[in-house]
Amino acid sequence: MVFAAWPASGQRVLTLPSFGPPPAKPATGSNERVADAPRVLPALPLEWPAWLTLPGGRLVAQRTNPPGRAGVGVDESCPGDVIGRPSQGCLKRTHLSGGNLKDVYAYFDGLLAQYGYTTQNASPEPYANLQLGKWVSDVFGSFTVRSYPDVRQPDHYRQINLFLRQLTSGQTQAEITFTVKNGPAAASAPPQAARKNDDRLSFPPPRGTWKWALQSVAVKVESKIQYSTFYYEASTDRSVEKPLPLPSGGSIVGVFPDDCTFSVQDQTGRSFTFKNQDEAKGKTLSPGYWSLFPIKCGGVVLFVK
After folding, report:
1. Which of the four pLDDT bands, split at 50, 70 and 90, describes residue 71?
2. d(Cα 304, Cα 281) in Å, to the nearest integer?
3. Would you list the DSSP string of 244-279?
4. How far is it, in rounded angstroms, from Cα 143 to Cα 83?
5. I want to staple 105 with a disulfide (CB 3.0 to 4.6 A). Which of 8, 141, 242, 252 is the partner?
6. Among residues 8, 16, 7, 6, which one has the least CA distance to residue 204?
7. Measured between alpha carbons, how far is 103 from 144 in angstroms, rounded to an integer?
């Protein structure tokens, strides 16, 4: 099955391949040994790690977002939160350092590795590494890493999101978010009955209603899933293979296909997941650089104004 992002007159059509679910595992035979169930682990407390400090840095802000509250605005959201649903809770601190950004990045790189934080997800499922990683440039740096008490339980972990920014004053700002997860997510509502293909069609929003079309395609390379991301700017008629810059923020106008589950993430590691267009339409994206990841489809286009 392929989805086609509509072309302007005279332009080529870009196809988005859609991958189906992974092949089902064969039924376990009666003589096959069943793997031992993972042990039950104690709950991880939402407490700031005493070692997570910046020597010589100055604490300029801190905040607690309690678990269970549906936050209003970006400041009250946590990594992995879903818009409109109770937050998993997190702790946030911001430090200022006189050191240059790359030195601060190198310090945190070694510190996080020392305490067992990694960019590798414990889950073997496709898209498992969707929101983990680290990178650095001359003016920005970022870590999204996890620590697993038991690698057999990928839904039981501590997570640290760390965003570094080089300020014009020559100082480096470190924004750190700490959160935990204690087991699988609560059971979701019963799925709705599948719609027939001829019940509906998915169309992108008309031109003139959006400024940017942010597109991402999932490609399977050997045993891993990789993402190619770029955005189209309507005013200049150009495509750029980078995250979408929104210096003043933006608003989601539409999604194509409209029934694709996807995630958006900014340069700080803050991310939101939407099940479909109905859930995403009208939601705002704060100022920053945004990337897009299809989850339950091979490719998706997000229209923003």
Report:
1. low
2. 10
3. EEETT-EEEEEEESTT--EEEEETTS-EEEESSHHH
4. 23
5. 141
6. 6
7. 18
Please report, for residues 40, 82, 86, 205, 266, the alpha-carbon distance to residue 262 in angstroms, rounded to integers and kept in the order given. 31, 11, 19, 18, 14
- Per-residue model confidence (pLDDT) at position 93: 94
C-alpha–C-alpha distance, residues 31 and 36, integer Å: 15
Structure confidence by residue, pLDDT tens digits, 249-287: 999 999 988 888 899 998 888 888 998 999 999 999 999
| CA 166/CA 258 separation, integer angstroms | 38
Confidence of residue 85 (pLDDT cuts 50, 70, 90): confident
The pTM of the full predicted model, rounded to 2 decimals, is 0.54
Question: Look-up: residue for tokens 């499922």?
Answer: 125
More confident residue, 186 or 175: 175
Q: Enter the tokens of residue 190.
A: 């019963």
How remote is the C-alpha of 6 from its chain's centroid? 26
The DSSP letter of residue 199 is G
- Contact predicate 162/136, CB 8 Å: no
Q: What amino acid occupies position 194?
A: A
Instruction: Burial-class residue 128 by CB neighbours within 10 Å (0-12, 13-18, 19+).
Output: middle
What CATH number is given for 58-182 in this structure? Answer: 3.30.310
Give residues with Cβ within 8 angstroms of 284, minimum separation 6.
Answer: 249, 250, 251, 252
Q: Which two tokens stand for residue 156?
A: 């039981």
